[in-house]
C-alpha cells in the first residue's frame, strides 16, 4: 500500500491504534488523528512511537503539503467525504497517497449473508457500499487502484455472539429484539464444529493526489 521507503503517514480516525501500529512497524513515521479522547488515550498507552493528536478528517492540525500519505482503516465511511477529501488533498504533498481500507464480511457464503440480514442496520452495509469496485475519490485524486484479500477469523458460537453484542444495532435493541437476534444467529451456525471460520474480505484502495 505504502511502498518500501519510509513515509510521513497520517492515520485518520485511528481509534485505539490497531492500524497505526501496523504501519509504524513497517518503518513509517505515523501520526494518528483521533477525535475521541478515550480512544486516543488508549492509543497512546498501547502504541509507543506513534504520535497521537486530536483532530478529524475534516480538520487536521497539519500544514499544507506536509504529509506523504493518509490512511484510513475502517473509518472513511464516517467522514463527511466532500470536506474530508478536500482536507486530505490540502495536507498531502503532490502525488501523495490516499489509502483507505475496509474489512467486510464475505457475503458470498450463504450463512454469512444470513448473518448480515440479522444485523444489517449499522453493521457493515455502509462499509460494503464504500468498498465496491468503481468508486472514486473526487477530482483532486487519480483513479484508484483496488486490491482485495480474503481471510477468516475463528469463532465459537459465544465469541460470535459477543462480536454481535458490540454492534450498535444490538446495543440499541430492546430485550425481546436482542433475544430474537441471538436465536436467529445461533440457528445459522447450529451444527457447526467449533471453532468455525467467519470469512472476511479486506478491500484496499490506493490513489494519488493530483
Short description:
With 210 residues, the chain is of the alpha/beta class.
Largest sheet: 7 strands, mixed
CATH architecture assignment name: 3-Layer(aba) Sandwich
> How many β-strand stretches?
7
CATH evolutionary superfamily: Vaccinia Virus protein VP39
Q: How would you state the average pLDDT, rounded?
A: 92
The number of domains: 1
Low-confidence region ranges: none
Strand portion, in percent? Answer: 25-35%
What is the rounded Rg?
19 Å
Q: Could you please say which CATH topology applies here?
A: Rossmann fold
H/E order of the elements? EHEHEEHEHHEHHHE
Helix content: 25-40%
Query: How do the strands of the widest beta sheet line up side by side?
Result: 3-2-1-4-5-7-6
What characteristic shape results from the CA principal axes? Answer: elongated
Work out the helix count.
8
Distance between the amino and carboxyl termini: 18 Å
CATH class: Alpha Beta
Amino acid at each position: 500500500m505504502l511502498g518500501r521507503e519510509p513515509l510521513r503517514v497520517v492515520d485518520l480516525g485511528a481509534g485505539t491504534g490497531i492500524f497505526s501500529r501496523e504501519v509504524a512497524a513497517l518503518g513509517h513515521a505515523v501520526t494518528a488523528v483521533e477525535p475521541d479522547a478515550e480512544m486516543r488515550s488508549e492509543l497512546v498507552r498501547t502504541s509507543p512511537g506513534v504520535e497521537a493528536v486530536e483532530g478529524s478528517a475534516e480538520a487536521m492540525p497539519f500544514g499544507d503539503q506536509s504529509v506523504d500519505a493518509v490512511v484510513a482503516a475502517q473509518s472513511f465511511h464516517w467522514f463527511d467525504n466532500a470536506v474530508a477529501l478536500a482536507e486530505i488533498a490540502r495536507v498531502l504533498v503532490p502525488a501523495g497517497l490516499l489509502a483507505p481500507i475496509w474489512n467486510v464480511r464475505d457475503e458470498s457464503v450463504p450463512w454469512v449473508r444470513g448473518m448480515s440480514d440479522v444485523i444489517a442496520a449499522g453493521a457493515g452495509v455502509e462499509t460494503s457500499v464504500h468498498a465496491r469496485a468503481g468508486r472514486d475519490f473526487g477530482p483532486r485524486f487519480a483513479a484508484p487502484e483496488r486490491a482485495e484479500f480474503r481471510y477468516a477469523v475463528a469463532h465459537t458460537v459465544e465469541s460470535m455472539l459477543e462480536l454481535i453484542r458490540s454492534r450498535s444495532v444490538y446495543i440499541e435493541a430492546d430485550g425481546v429484539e436482542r433475544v430474537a437476534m441471538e436465536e436467529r444467529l445461533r440457528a445459522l451456525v447450529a451444527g457447526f464444529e467449533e471453532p468455525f471460520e467467519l470469512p472476511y474480505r479486506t478491500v484496499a484502495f490506493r490513489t494519488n493526489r493530483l
